[in-house]
Every structure is written in C-alpha cells, then in structure tokens.
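U., I forgot to send this yesterday:
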Amino acid sequence: MHNPSPPRRRGRSPLPDAELVADIRALVADLPTYGYRRVHALLLQPHSGKGEERRPDSRVAVDRRNTRWCSDALEIGCDNGEKVRIAFALDRCDREAMGHVATTGGIAAEDLRDLMVATVEHRFGPVNRLAEPIEWLSDNGSPYVVGDTRRFARDIGLVPRTTPVSSPQSNGMAEHFVRTLKRDDVRVNPMANARAVIEQLPA
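Result:
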C-alpha cells in the first residue's frame, strides 16, 4: 500500500533567532570578505571543543565609539629597497584610523606605547588616564604582549586584549584595513624611499 506523503507545512517559516542574527551581522561587519561557509564555521567554533576558545568580544563590532580599539602593524617596501614598518590604531565602531607610528626598524614596545598615547590624545586631548576604560585589541606579537606594554596600557586606562593564537580573523577589522591600504594606496602611489612614505602616511 502506498504511504501518503507527509502533509506540507503551511504558513511562514520560523523567524531566525535574534541572538544568532546579531552574531552573524557582527561577524559580517567585522569580516566583510567572509562567505557563509566561513561565517558558519566561526559560529560553530565555540561549541566544537577543538582548538582554542574564541573570545567573542575580540571579534564583535561595537555600536559606540571609544569602547573597543584595535591595533596591528604592516610593512611597506620602498622603491629603493628600504622598508617602513607601521603600527596603527582603529576604533572598532567608526573605523577611524586614530593614530600611527612609523619606523625603518622593527616596531618596538616603546613605539606601541607612543601609539597608545597618540591615540588617546587624538580622541580626548592630553589626559593622564581615560575616564572610562577602553579595550585595546591586538594580535600576539611580542611588542604587544610584553609586560611593559600591557602595564602601560592599564596605567592610562586601556584594557589590553589579544586574539587567540592562529586566529587572525579575530582582528579582522585591522586586517581589512591593511589590505585596503596596500591595495588602494601603496600599489598606486610612488614609494620612492622611507622618508617619502613616512611623510605621506598622515594623508
């Protein structure tokens, strides 16, 4: 005897979970180049039991300025063979590049402390300590995680946070900024020497 097919459900599909939608939107805002497969993998990662735990507050975009800042570094090769190394800071709400330091040597802990001061002064003027704490997100590069840098950050009111090891997407906004800068500026403008590059950076 032929079994009748199960009755079809009628009506609208169930609405997506509001918290899940918020997580997806935050991921897409922070990682605009990711497709649905990679976003899906990131959403499942905290429950997989494999690898290091992803820190949700290291990847979620914020809706208020001066809540969470992020920092990263890049290198620009000049036409004459010199290299300029740059560290910068962004606000994860409005994505403004608030400060940078540049050197022809390696980025040192002292450079990052200068960057922190420049970033704070850009937003709040010459203050000794922030009135409200602001998270400072970075990768695990040694100048960022060395004790002196982290202590200095706390002294001026920043809360140092680092991305999980082998998880650069957690600082996706900074990574995206680096790619955009190299694509839209470095590749189309003359990079004659280190001095010329450093002078161009504020623009």
